Amino acid sequence: MRVIIAEDQGMLRGALSALLDMEDDIEVVGQAENGEKALELIHALKPDICLLDIEMPILTGLDVAEQLAAQRHVCKVVILTTFSRSGYFQRAMRAGVHGFLLKDAPIDDLSASLRRVYEGGRAVSPELAITLWEAGNPLSDREREVLKLAGEGLSAQEISKSLHLTAGTVRNYLSEAIRKLDAKNRIEAITIANKKGWLD
């Protein structure tokens, strides 16, 4: 299988490439230091799988996955992460990602996961799966929407106009989001939701 690795840390990118290249059935055909370069390489080299760091400059791994999904590209996406935010995982699943793996997993686990994806399966690190299962987003779509707009600095009145709701309804959604997140106020609720990736 032909693989592209996108990771902004050069040392890690080089190490991953060298280790995967030692596998008989895996060939690393390209390396990228950011998401934009990764997209260029994917279109130019047409790999079977792209291994993407979740947080990179210019375009993140999730940005790249979403663009490939929109283009109906055949390259399969595997996300590498140190983060267990459920919002990231949900966004990755919506983008049709085939794998969601921890960076510090043993190389044997990574290569086995790549083979599973190559053969049409999916791969999620067990540690991530447990964390994400336990930490589901408690916010409804509307609460998330309202909290996200509040985080962008909009007042309840402005949010009500934007979403075609009454100001009272917006305040109710904000109050419920604050309660669910066990926050003291909307600022703290926005901070908590952002930290967990629930507003992405």
Automatic annotation (TrEMBL):
PROSITE patterns assigned: HTH_LUXR_2, RESPONSE_REGULATORY
Stored Gene3D superfamilies: 3.40.50.2300
Limits of the HTH luxR-type domain: 132-197
Residues covered by the Response regulatory domain: 2-118
Chain positions with 4-aspartylphosphate modification: 53
Keywords: DNA-binding, Phosphoprotein, Transcription, Transcription regulation
SUPFAM superfamilies xref list: C-terminal effector domain of the bipartite response regulators, CheY-like
Protein name in the entry: Response regulator transcription factor
Organism annotation: Paenibacillus terricola
Lineage, uppermost ranks: Bacteria, Bacillati, Bacillota, Bacilli, Bacillales
